[in-house]
Amino acid sequence: MIASSIPTAGKAASAHRTAAAVVIGCSAGGLDALHKVLDAFPKEFAATVIIVAHIAADSVNLLPALLAKTCRLAVSEAREREPALPGHVYVAPPNYHLLIEPNRVFALSVDERVCFVRPSIDVLFHSAADAYGEQLVGVILTGANNDGAEGLKAVKAAGGFTLVQEPSGAYADTMPKAAIATGAADKVLALPALVAEILNRQ
Amino acid sequence: MDESKIQDIEIGLFLDALYQRYDYDFRNYAKASLKRRVLGLAAAERLSVAELIPLVLRREDYLAEVIAQLSVPVSDMYRDPPVFKALRETVLPLLQTYPRINVWQAGCATGEEVYSLAIMLEEEGLLERTQIYATDINDSALHKAEDGIFPVHNLAGFEKNYKNAGGKAEFADYYVANADFFRIYKRLRQKIVFAHHNLVSDGVFCEVQLILCRNVLIYFNDELQKRVLELFYNSLVRGGFLCLGTRESLRSIEEQRLFAPHQADCMIFHKNGVVT
Ligand SMILES: C[S@@+](CC[C@H](N)C(=O)[O-])C[C@H]1O[C@@H](n2cnc3c(N)ncnc32)[C@H](O)[C@@H]1O
């Protein structure tokens, strides 16, 4: 089943909205955390999932395959100019920033590193905030640098819903702590509750 | 209206001003990354994007800064070594038959990649009869490229890439270095003409056997991409080669049918004889 229409945002700002997309950022310890999140999504999951994970350049090529093993949704590396489909998981390719255009097709860039990394979570989140506005869920998981904090702020500012993994339960707590410090996190949760919040927006 | 939408309007006006004032047309660049860069320009001046418009219109010295910020002059030696290996093994041998060879690198940025190519041509015995043209819209990047001076802190990575790309000697054979910088030897530098050329608005400037244009088209929208692919088609000799970036979309290539795969996994194409 493919969700064919994207509901337009209503007026009530706090109403539970269906998310059209979920963007996820992580680094150290990310593979394990990603498995825990993605493996909990049912095969009817109807949002687009877009991931930036800083993992050693050699293994990041393998990330889609690793995630696909246990995830019920299709997983692939995001390709330039490819439309972002619902119910599909996309992973940023190594060494490129991944962005989503206002018309919701993917774009890549080799712009300078941001926070010393490429792909950068901030870059993806900023562009996704523009493309999806209130229909976006931004998620920061375990990680060992500050990337993603600015991006999460942008998601929040655009009316999106923001989730951060509880730092004490995260493999590396720098990234979740930095995200929380911006004041932009709607909820800080352990992974099972975080997943439940995402599924709630289905 | 939210701030981001207002910024979008401002960016549109800013790009119009830039175009009307100087004929630099960024209106068909991919939106999301261009927006990042325009916002960066505004942040550097501590102004809104709309407030940049008077600078663009009235301060001529500001243009260089705008171009420097909007273009993305980032390059590497032998980025994606398998691609250079493929060029060396499957393209350069086919260029042997030409008495004179022209190569064009479009969007050369600071030149790392075009020097990688020059070294390869030398090792394959072709450099003597080759003229390389390296073009860009970013003049300050072009000057850096022409100087051929690069920081040594990247050397280890470059050496590794050089070997992985099938380098036949030592990377160190091609430069002199001090503690901070290394400089590509003059015999390589003098084989390259660095020139200002805008893929958006300029035309064919010579007939070439090989075009290298990696990670430039990713910044363009579909319409502009197609224009540039046509320009490449018209610049290539019969059967000439085009090498694009590893992660670039094939859609325009497939739709236009101007090029056929030569080695698709490395994004190397050749000009199609007959266009259907
Ligand atoms: C990311 S760099 C790629 C450098 C090199 N090809 C490489 O991959 O190492 C992109 C370059 O394209 C140039 N560029 C952007 N728009 C251009 C245009 N309209 N005409 C020519 N060059 C352009 C930029 O100035 C920048 O130097």
Write a concise synopsis of the structure shown:
The complex is a heterodimer of chains A (202) and B (276). Chain A is of the alpha/beta class. Chain A has 7 helices and 9 strands.
Helix content of chain B: 40-55%
Q: Biggest sheet of chain A: strands side by side, in what order?
A: 3-4-2-1-7-8-9
Termini gap of chain B: 48 Å
* Distinct small molecules: S-adenosylmethionine
Give the ordered list of helices and strands of chain B. HHHHHEHEHEHEEHEEHEHEE
CATH class bucket of the largest domain in chain B: Alpha Beta
What is the tally of beta strands of chain A? 9
The CATH architecture designation of chain A is: 3-Layer(aba) Sandwich
Helix/strand-derived class of chain A? alpha/beta
How would you describe the shape of chain A? globular
Word description of this protein:
The complex is a heterodimer of chains A (202) and B (276). With 202 residues, chain A is an alpha/beta fold. Chain A has one domain: 3-Layer(aba) Sandwich (Rossmann fold). Chain A is built from seven helices and nine strands, in the order βαβααββββαβαβαβα. Chain A has a seven-stranded parallel β-sheet, with helices on both faces. A two-stranded antiparallel sheet of chain A has the order 5-6. Chain A is globular and about 35 Å long. Residues 1-14 of chain A have low confidence and may be disordered. In chain B, a hairpin with a 4-residue loop joins strand 9 and strand 10 (268-271). The radius of gyration of chain B is 20 Å and the shape is globular. Chain B has a seven-stranded mixed β-sheet. Chain B is of the alpha/beta class and 276 residues long. Chain B has two domains: 3-70, no CATH class; 81-271, Vaccinia Virus protein VP39 (Rossmann fold). The longest helix of chain B is centred in the N-terminal third of the chain and has 20 residues, at 3-22. Chain B has helices at residues 3-22, 31-45, 49-58, 62-70, 81-95, 112-123, 139-147, 155-164, 186-189, 222-235, 251-256; strands at residues 101-106, 130-136, 149-151, 175-177, 181-184, 192-196, 208-213, 236-244, 259-263, 268-271. In chain B, helix 1 (3-22) packs parallel to helix 3 (49-58) and helix 2 (31-45) packs across helix 4. At the A-B interface, strand 5, strand 6 and helix 4 of A face helix 1 and helix 2 of B. The complex binds S-adenosylmethionine. Residues 71-76, 79, 107, 109, 113, 136-138, 141, 198-200, 214-216, 219 of chain B line the site of S-adenosylmethionine.
